[in-house]
Amino acid sequence: MQLGWLMVRTVLISLKFKPDLVFGQAVPHIGYTAFLLGKPFIVFEDTEVSRLLHRLVHPFADAIVAPTVSNAPGPAPDNHPYRV
Q: What is the mean pLDDT of the segment spanning 69-78?
């Protein structure tokens, strides 16, 4: 229910504001709104453990900006969700 209200509110605000580009964290109502409006969606994400949230939002993202894996030295592991 809350996702539906957030979605309606975000769409209404976006229609009034008319953005060219949508920035945000990986939250469904922002990603879906960007998709419905046909706007690029840039995700800034630092939560690596939210697998379900990533699966819901990342298909709608045009780009994902994330820090290195837990500040560990060396390259990101092969199974990291943000590995390019």
A: 56
